[in-house]
Input
Amino acid sequence: MIANTASLDLVEYIETNILPQYAQFDKAHNLGHVVRVIKRSMDLVRTTGADINMVYAIAAYHDIGMSGPRAVHHITGGKILASDIKLRKWFSADQLKIMREAIEDHRASASHAPRSIYGKIIAEADRDLDPEIVFRRIIQFGLANYPELDKEGHWFRFREHLENKYSVNGYIKLWIPGSENESKLKAVRSYIANQSELLRIFNKLYISEIQEK
Output
């Protein structure tokens, strides 16, 4: 489906047993999200020379830990990958250790740099930095997890999250120099600096998401 030249039997196993689990997660971490992350990860294989099977599997498992508490989903996801004995058909113990660490390191709020190129690839690929996707995912997560908030409350949370994560003082970091994420992050920051335009976009996306619920 989306794995280019990764081993066909690995792709079949993951598409049959792993990817369907994303259907149970919120809109910000659903199947559409993981498919986009896999695609971006595979694109980065070409520029980094990383092992394509490792990259594919890491991307496929990176948010699987959302089956448990979100705050530790990166740790849970690493454990799920490491405990999946079926993966031993394709990967050595050393490779699985690197893959587990990559998933543990992928969060934008991580306090340390990813420990390997594989961690940098998945961290970079996980950054859905197209401005509309960034804004829509924030709203989707807010609606799913803070149903008690009214529209004004969601607007306040929306602005606060953008400032804390995506602004020039935010915690998000990019790990692959020259990636398309650099220009996309600049675009997000230009919207943050234009509050009237940001409010217009928020209102449009908020109404769209409310109508779909």
